[in-house]
Amino acid sequence: MGEMTKAMRKAFPYTIPVLVGYVFMSFAFGVMFTEQGYSVLWAILMRIVVYAGSGQYLAVNFFVPGVSLLQAAFLTIMVNIRHVFYGLSLVERYNRVGFLKRLYLIFGMTDETYSLVCTTNIPDDVDEGKFLLSITLLNQLYWIGGTIVGSLASTAIPFNSEGIEFAMTALFIVLFVELWCKRSNRYPELVGVMASILCLVIFGADGFILPTMILIIAILMINRNRLDTGKIETEVERDA
Amino acid sequence: MLDTMDSLIMIVVVAIATFSTRAFSFIIFPKGKEVPPAVSYLGKVLTPAIIGMLVIYCLKSTSVLAYPYGMPELIACVTVMALHLWKRNTLLSIGVGTVLYMFLVQYVF
Predict the structure, then answer these.
(1) Which own/partner contact pairs does B69-76 have at CB distance under 8 Å and 24+ positions apart?
(2) What is the ipTM of this complex?
(3) CB contacts < 8 Å between A and B, how many?
(4) What pLDDT score does A240 carry?
(5) Are both B38 and B20 inside the same structural domain?
(6) Among candidates B13, B40, B52 on the partner chain, residue whose Cβ is nearest the Cβ of A189
């Protein structure tokens, strides 16, 4: 357990931005779920077995009579379809760890965890698997913690939290800027932004992610000869 | 609110659906199976592209054509970028950007 504690301590500073964002986002989920008539225990159970940013907000709408299971499954898959492609970036790294750990890492692959895992340079003196596990686990603990607070305090909060969700946007912008400082990342970053804007305009906010991912992959594959120089580094130095 | 049994079944369905999207690539490329060079390449270049996509994804509900014309988002995003390029301090950039955005949507626009 000593090794794991060490990995947790090393991983913690990298997860602080997610801590801030998650506590407030999951707080909002706790409030919404309680308003549907579910107690804090339900919210916690939901948080433990389903760990998924925006998917979780969507799921709140399923807990009313009249939504079929098939419909719920289909909508959940569509909202989370981008994670199919996240897996592609992590297959090599995650396949190096043991089976149970890998199962949990895959289960916990949210947008935020994915972004941290892909851009964090693992310290030399920590075990890779334990470090990845620490990041994923810490993030989920923030997620659960925020839900508990949100469910319990859903009434009489003298604090206007409108706009707090911008913490996640800011986190991704920071990672974007960090990657930008390494020249090799600029082309794929621009492809990601431009393809998203184009598809958002054409398909609208509810259905643009799948076409965006397909467009991104097509453009990156067409340019493979030019980009595949082996110099792509997504691990950035951070003040952690 | 659904009854207890229906609620439990719904949670399990949502859990399986969520997990299946994440596990998809790992089922196609299980441990021990050689990952083709094209996928290996894609895995590397996809990260910066996906981070770019996530920035837009977070901003997808911004109203650009109606008041306030995306002004709070634009101001806060530019601030985070400029501050981060200047100081390179993650917490400072996120903290200042979020507080500024909250101030803008609550009091200014």
Answers:
(1) B71/B104, B71/B109, B72/A163, B72/B101, B72/B104, B72/B105, B72/B108, B72/B109, B73/A169, B73/B101, B75/B100, B75/B104, B76/A166, B76/A169, B76/A170, B76/B100, B76/B101, B76/B104
(2) 0.88
(3) 270
(4) 42
(5) no
(6) B52
